[in-house]
Design goal:
- The complex is a heterodimer.
- Chain A is α/β, with parallel strands linked by helices.
- Chain A is built from 17 helices and 21 strands.
- Helices cover 46% and strands 15% of the residues of chain A.
- In chain A, 52% of the residues are buried.
- By secondary structure, chain B is of the alpha/beta class.
- Chain B has two domains: 81 residues, Methionine synthase domain (Methyltransferase, Methionine Synthase (B12-binding Domains), Chain A, domain 1); 119 residues, Cobalamin-binding domain (Rossmann fold).
- Chain B has a five-stranded parallel beta sheet, with helices on both faces.
- The longest helix of chain B is centred in the first third of the chain and has 24 residues.
- At the A-B interface, loops of A face helix 5 and helix 7 of B.
């Protein structure tokens, strides 16, 4: 099993206990008074049987607080996600921090910033690169690219899922649009793995038919579920952080209620993917202070009060168009706030340009970022050995610690030594041709391509995946979607 | 009378949604020519749109000004119809976000700016089925059909609607504009659209160009 990073200290808190209670209570009020729209009669009927007041015409269920709190208690604090290679499985929750790959619609050229439709080769290479990176523990849906040249849009999720399983042994998340969950579930089963099912709400306060269907389907397959309600503060959520926290909380709790009504005890990880709005253009604004605070408050509520695993996506993207200072300055503060405030899963590697673009060279750089953050949350030991009073005494005022056993045996574990960041002297840097971190990551990219061989699926598994994709293609053709 | 006109301007320029209906009713009850009232509101929203384009105002200002019009205009339009009058426009635009897609912000920005520019806008909302676009184009005798798609998986719905326009012999009667983050000029050309706008203000420019309006 991939171990992830064990947080050794209490998560950072941004809210008082009273504020946590205020947000929770307001969330219950929203669900009881305003209700939540589930665009599925099957879901509404189930919720009615569990005590919700359902209006089938508006498809809104008003959810009693007791049902919400029952659903919270039924959701386990951690769950196991089986990978194709059991050694790459993960247990999400508790005090463990893992990292998830990011994604982008298109391939971005590192040097020019121009985006193009990725080819199948580019897609497969990007999966392979992330498979080789220790800090990428799990893949999301349609990753790394939302689109692949020559693949009909409706087939992009099943094909992406197939290629992730062919070029990586790590666990993956499924998708929900256009019945893609049918094929992704079959693909995961074909390689004897689980995927995290995907049930994403549509803010404000609604869950479309596709994710409702996905919830029933993935839970029937005995898969854990990733939930989300992507939204924009000032657009689909209130502009205030407190108001957006309540709306977001209510949406995710409503989805938890449905999942636990379908299958009590189902494992769930709840994602925070709330972004700010650029009020001049209406576009998404990433890496802002408001997003960082929203995620921190969210982590505190879900980690300490609900004890349900949490995922943060705020650091997955930047509005920067290339790998530059802005990109780092937008992604890293959010990732750091997430790591310190209790996130169990952080989406980080490779995403650029506000969901538009991805490049595996950035994923290689983000590997160092993730490992640095992981090292921070693991904290440091304070004991006789690490304090080393004798060592301090022996060195006294005139010596050096470099020649001590303590330094020799502990320097590698006390700090994380980056693999890609440039730590050479200025003169070495000049002599080596002034290589930037991007040059170094490109060299590492070539090295990985030349040497790394992902564990392939068996010929039987490959044949079965092809059969599933063929069946999916025929299914969508019949529906007129291809 | 000039006070009444100023009040109508003020509800738009001050984004005063709460008093929009009351001020519109008072204006009509005061005997103000309803066409003049409508033109006053249109001039005011055009001013808001211009200031938004210059970066002096922001999206919440634009949307709130649009909300003022949504409340005030039905009252004024009713009075115009009752008096047998009519209001001129640059053209009729049917607009919506395609089926399977619930993103509304970009579409609403374009709708508001088109309205501010002087077009009559029929906003069908989000998640609009192909047949509903076709029915609206026919019913309103639209000059332009504007479609938004924010998802890669829904972008092809735009093509489906254009195919629908062809099969119902409506294609020659209406110009088609497409937009949304997965859309580019290449895609717009490939599905047979007449125009593509990367931003809301560009969408308005395209609409004017297609209507052969001098800019």
């Amino acid at each position: 099993m991939q171990n992830g990073f064990k947080r050794k200290f209490e998560p950072l808190k941004i809210l008082t206990d009273s504020q946590v209670e205020q947000i929770h209570t307001a969330s219950l009020n929203v669900l009881e008074e305003v209700g939540f729209k589930y665009e599925s009669n099957k879901a509404l009927k189930l919720l009615e049987e569990h005590g919700c007041r359902v209006d089938y015409k508006t498809m809104i269920a008003k959810i009693p607080p007791s049902l919400v709190e029952w659903a919270i208690t039924k959701t386990p604090s951690s769950f196991y996600l089986k990978a194709r290679d059991p050694g790459k499985s993960i247990r999400l929750g508790g005090n463990t921090l893992y990292f998830m790959n990011s994604a982008g619609a298109r391939y971005v050229d590192i040097d020019t910033g121009m985006v193009t439709m990725p080819t199948m080769d580019q897609n497969n290479i990007a999966v392979l690169i992330s498979d080789s990176l220790d800090s990428v523990n799990v893949f999301p849906s349609y990753t790394p690219y939302f689109e692949i040249e020559g693949i009909p849009p409706v087939m992009s999720c099943p094909v992406s899922c197939a290629q992730r399983h062919r070029f990586s042994t790590k666990p993956s998340r499924g998708a929900q649009p256009s019945d893609s969950f049918i094929w992704e579930t079959q693909i995961a089963k074909a390689v004897d793995a689980q995927i995290m099912g995907c049930v994403e709400g549509a803010a404000p306060l609604s869950l479309a038919e596709d994710p409702c269907n996905a919830a029933f389907y993935y839970l029937e397959a005995d898969f854990p579920i990733y939930i989300a309600s992507g939204s924009i503060m000032g657009g689909s959520h209130p502009v205030t952080i407190a108001g957006a926290s309540v709306s977001h909380n209510a949406e995710l709790l409503a989805i938890i209620v449905l999942l636990q009504c379908i299958k009590p005890g189902a494992g769930v990880i709840a994602n925070n993917f709330v972004s700010a709005m650029n009020m001049a253009t209406g576009d998404l604004s990433f890496g802002t202070a408001a997003i960082a605070m929203h995620q921190m408050a969210y982590n505190q509520i879900w980690h300490s009060l609900y004890k349900i695993p949490v995922n943060n996506t705020g650091s997955a993207f930047s509005n920067a168009k290339i790998i530059d200072y802005q990109l780092g300055a937008e992604k890293l503060p959010l990732a750091t706030c997430s790591a310190l405030s209790g996130a169990n899963l952080i989406v980080l590697h490779g995403g650029v340009t506000a969901e538009l673009a991805y490049n595996p060279v950035l994923a290689i750089i983000d590997d160092d970022v993730a490992k640095t953050l992981g090292r921070i949350v693991e904290g440091f030991a304070v004991n006789d050995e690490t304090i080393g009073l004798d060592v301090i005494r022996n060195v006294g005022s005139n010596g050096t610690f470099l020649n001590t056993r303590q330094t020799r045996t502990m320097w590698k574990t006390e700090d994380y030594v980056p693999g890609i960041f440039d730590k050479t002297s200025y003169q070495e840097w000049v002599n080596s041709g002034k290589k930037t971190v991007i040059d170094r990551a490109k060299a590492r990219y070539e090295e990985i391509l030349a040497t790394y061989k992902p564990v392939p699926v068996t010929p039987e598994q490959d044949k079965e995946i092809n059969r599933i994709l063929k069946e999916a293609s025929q299914y969508y053709k019949k529906k007129g979607l291809i | 009378m000039s006070d009444t006109i100023q009040q109508l301007k003020d509800i738009v320029l001050n984004f005063d949604i709460d008093n929009a209906e009351a001020v519109a009713k008072a204006a009509i009850n005061s005997g103000l020519d309803p066409v003049l009232a409508a033109n006053t509101l249109t001039d005011a929203i055009r001013d808001v749109g211009d200031r938004f384009g210059k970066g002096e105002l922001y999206l919440p200002d634009l949307v709130c000004a649009s909300e003022v019009l949504k409340k005030a205009f039905p009252i004024i339009n009713e009075a115009i119809e009752a008096s047998g009058g009519s209001q001129s426009s640059l053209g009729k635009v049917v607009i919506g976000t395609v089926f399977g897609d619930i993103h509304s912000i970009g579409k609403s920005m374009v709708a508001t700016l088109l309205y501010a520019a002087g077009f009559k806008v029929i906003d069908l909302g989000i998640n609009v089925k192909s047949e509903d676009f076709l029915a609206a184009v026919k019913e309103h005798n639209a000059d332009i059909l504007a479609m938004s798609a924010l998802l890669t998986t829904t972008a092809m719905e735009q093509k489906k609607v254009i195919e629908g326009l062809k099969s119902t012999s409506l294609r020659d009667r209406v110009k088609v504009i497409v937009g949304g983050s997965p859309i580019n000029q290449e895609f717009a050309d490939s599905i047979g659209a007449d125009g593509y706008g990367a931003t809301a203000p560009e969408g308005v420019k395209i609409a004017k160009r297609l209507m052969r309006i001098e800019q």
